Structure formats: structure tokens, C-alpha cells
Amino acid sequence: MTFRTLYKTAGICIAAGLILLAIMACGDSESETASPASQPVAETVKQVSPTVAPAPTAMPAPTSAPAPTAMPAVATQAPVVDRDAGPSKITTSAPFAPSNNGAVETDDSFIVSRAGVTETLVKIDFDGDVKPYLAESWSLRDGNAWEFKLREDVSFQDGAAFDSASVVTALEYLRGVPNPPRGFTEDTLKSVTAADSYTVIIESGAPDVLLPTRLAVPTTGILTPASYEGAGSASPSVIGAGTGPFIIEGEVSIESISMMKFGDYWGGNAELDAAEFFFVPDGGVRSAMLETGEVDFVRHLPISQLPIYMDNSDYTIYREQQPRTVSLYVNNRNGPFSDVNVRKAAQHAIDRRAIVDSVLEGVGQPAIGPFAPSEAWVNSDLAAYEFDPETAKEFLAKAGYEEGEVKVSLWTYPSRAEFPAMSVAIHEMLNDAGFSAEIRLAPWGALVDDVFAGDFDMFLVSRGHLIDAYDPEGFFTADYSCSSMDVSNYANYCNPMVDELLEQARPLSDTEARYDIFRQIQQILHDDAAHPFINYTEQIYAYGNHVKNWQSHMLEYYMLTTELDVSN
Predict the structure, then answer these.
(1) Could you report how far apart the first and last alpha carbons of the chain are, in Å?
(2) How confident is residue 483, by pLDDT bands cut at 50, 70 and 90?
(3) Residue 193 phi/psi, 5° resolution?
(4) How far apart are CA 379 and CA 3, in angstroms?
(5) How many CB atoms lie within 10 A of CB 230?
(6) Reduced DSSP (H G I as helix, E B as strand, rest coil) percent helix, strand, coil of the chain, to 5
(7) Spatial distance between the Cα atoms of 31 and 449, rounded to a whole number of angstroms
(8) What value, to the nearest 5°, has the Cα angle with vertex 170 and ends 168 and 174?
């Protein structure tokens, strides 16, 4: 029996200390993952050429839209499949499964983009540069209108024409869905019109210097027109919906998706003949699948599994610092954390250094604010909240609570292998600092709707902060603006001063002026003790040395490229 089969068939029941593990589904969402930046950490078995950290340009990370709309049937013409290149296939395992049948407006779009199925108008390449993709060029016209010139040598995998009409259909669809992708508002996408067969005019409601790069996020992938017919969500889950070098074969499921090479791809045929992605929440199982040869490649290798591969010359380990922070979001709207003194008590209760050194075995850095010191927009003047349980108790007393009187539930999810142990450590720290804490461990999807509705106390989550551009404006808007309450604001945080500053930043083309505003926002969040930031993270990839030409993408948008290959 394979590890994958064993995992699917085994019943899971865990009771450890005060942890209540309620596993209600197999899959989690990409939305908490957002996207890694490029500051590789040199711990490799075989040296891999690192991605160069880009000069700040633009691009995103996932969205956390509530349940998406549904799904139309697609594809009427049989796709062209090239099977002459030989049976070369790559298999991978990753923690986060599609949860919306591949719906393009949801975080599922990141999975199908990595699968080489969908493509966008604009691309963020592997060096972090903004490059043409389905659009050959773009320029700002009058006012807030941008003109995009489209490629004329592209067709969809089902044979339909790629032209201005198909782009208008795709982007108008995104404007109309109940929960549009992050970065898509009336201010950022007011209208889309076709000027001619291969020219599209996209207008924002307010000046938006980031609009072209917002069109690189996978949620803006352009699907064949048939995908948008009828009621429901548009999805590439039926063969032939995309323009990329690979076609989804069969259905998108929470267990796996399979791809085959598209033999008439406008960018040239892929080296690989086929690929399969397995979605495995358990990090130990993902690792075992690599060790036994069931998969060639693992995303999100758990820290605990590193020793298995570090001294084995058959594997490569690649560690990369991410624009991602593990954060303990607390409910600013309801319950005890609506009091700033209780929030400050939580800040002083947590020993971030001990978590990194002990639980994370030294991987990562303790966090002070949302951004790591290497990021261009970081506020380096923020002063860390000192770990001091007695100070925490003083703040609880200032809020009118006796020791042990503040009862809180700390929620998190197991698909990030380190989170259960982190939650136990934080739970003990909170109790030592005068709280009365318990833990709830459950799949992402069982928690997130209640978080956005304000029906929670504490939520431990890994949060990427490059959401819709290589710029933190989208992250601030999604997580800390008053307008994002009930949609994507994990902390249920609202301070009108933050909204005002974001309005000032959006039209600014002066990079340093924008960054200065972002530093002011960081200071406001710090002064409000909005929630504890725990640690800055690293992504760990592991793969067999027979995998050829893989590149780490700073935002994890792309994996199956035409160059990726495996040797026999």
C-alpha cells in the first residue's frame, strides 16, 4: 500500500494535551499562502541557482473569497495533444487542495496556474520583472485608462480564438462575481472595452499605478469563452479552457489533478509529456511520498523532515525566504481583544524567539511587524513587544480582568506541519501570562468563514503579503482596511487613519513616497497592538535530482513550464 493510499484510507484521531482536532475535510485553501519572495537561504544538498530579489514592481498572492459561485461546462473541441516526445512525467505533492472546483476567481487559480494551464495578460517572470504574456504591450492613455495590445498568435486549447472579446468576457466576469479577487474594486477596475480585435482598454475608477501588474495574478487568468456560459463560476476544470502548455485531464479534485501536454501551445511544446499534483495536508506523508519515489517533488517540506534529505546526494533541498509572516490574528471587533489592553497583554505573553529556536528548529526569524528586515518598505523603527508575562498580567488587570478570567480559544489548521506544535507553545505562554486558553485544530475551510464573520478569538495563520502586486498596498487593504471587514480582514481590524493613508498611497508613482506611507501604517498597527506577528518564514522545497530545469518563482505562480523536465 502506498503512503498516499494509506493516508486516504486511514482514520485520523489525535488527542494531545488540550488540542481538539476536528478534521472535517481533506483540503485547505491557497488563500493563507499568498506568495513567496526571493531571498533563498543557502541550505541545499545540491546548490540551486537562486532567484534574484526583484526591484519592487508588482504582484499578488491569493485571496480568501468565501464560497465561490458554481460552474459551467466547457470545451467542445478535442484538444491537440502531442504524445511523440516520450512518456516523461513529473509528480508533486503539496498541502493545499483546490476547494472550489478550480473556479478562476478563487485561490484555486493559483494551483491551475502552477499547473501550466491558465495564463494572464501580464507576467511576473522568474527574476521578478513585469513582462508581456498574453498582452504584448500596455501603456497609460488618457486619465485612468490603460491600453493593452494582445498577442495575435494565441488560441485556447479548445480551439476558440483568443482576442479582445474573450478578454472583455473574462475581466467583466471578475467584476461581476459576488466575491471578486483581491485588488478588484471599482477603483482598480472600472471598465473593460474592446477597441479592436486585439486591443483592450482597461480603466480604473481612480489613479492606480499598479493596474498592469494586478493583471498578472492567477485569478485574472483568461479562459475560453465557453467557460463563462450559463450560471455559476468559470473554471478551467474541463479540458481545453486555458491557453497554457498543459491541459487538465479529467476533473479537479481535492485529492489530485492530472495534466497532459498541449501540443499546439503558442510558446512552443513542453519537454514534459504529463504531470500530476497530489494534495496531501499531512507534511510527514508528503515527505514519505518523496522518499519512496511516489512523487518527484514536494512543496512545503516540514522542517522536521529536513534531516532525511540534507545528507542524501539523491535529493536537492531548496530554502527560500518568503514575503510571509506567521501571525496570531485576534478579533479586534468582538470579545476580549476588542480592548487594546488585552491585545497588548497578548503581545507581551508570547516568546517569539523561543518559538523560532525550539519549535521551528531555527528556521525563520522572530517577527516585530508584518515585514521582514530585508523588505524595502519595512519600518525598521518598530520596537518589539518584549516577552514579559508579568507585564501581560498588568495589562489584563488594566482591562479589568483577574488572572485566568480571560478565556480564549486559539484556532489553527494542521496542513502547515509546524502549526500544531506552535499552537501548543503559544497556548502555554498565554496561560502563563494570565489568560485561560484552549486550542482548536481544524481544516482551514472549517475556520475561515467564522473568522471573517468575527466569531472567533485567535487565529494562527501564515499570511503572504504580496497579494496583488510586488507592493504591500493590497495586503494592507485586504487585511486592515475597514472596507475589507467580513471579506478578508482576519483581525476584523478597522482604523480610519489606515484607510486614509491607503487612499493617499494608491495613485503615487513615487516609490519612496509610497513606502513612507506604508511605514506609517505599520506604526499605527503596532501602536494599536492589532495582533501579534510571530515569525518570518521560509518555504522549503525538496525534489529528486532527476528533476531538471525547475525554477523557484518568487510568487509561486508558475511551476510547470515548457523547460521543466525529468530524466529517466
Answers:
(1) 24
(2) confident
(3) -135, 155
(4) 45
(5) 11
(6) 25, 20, 55
(7) 12
(8) 110
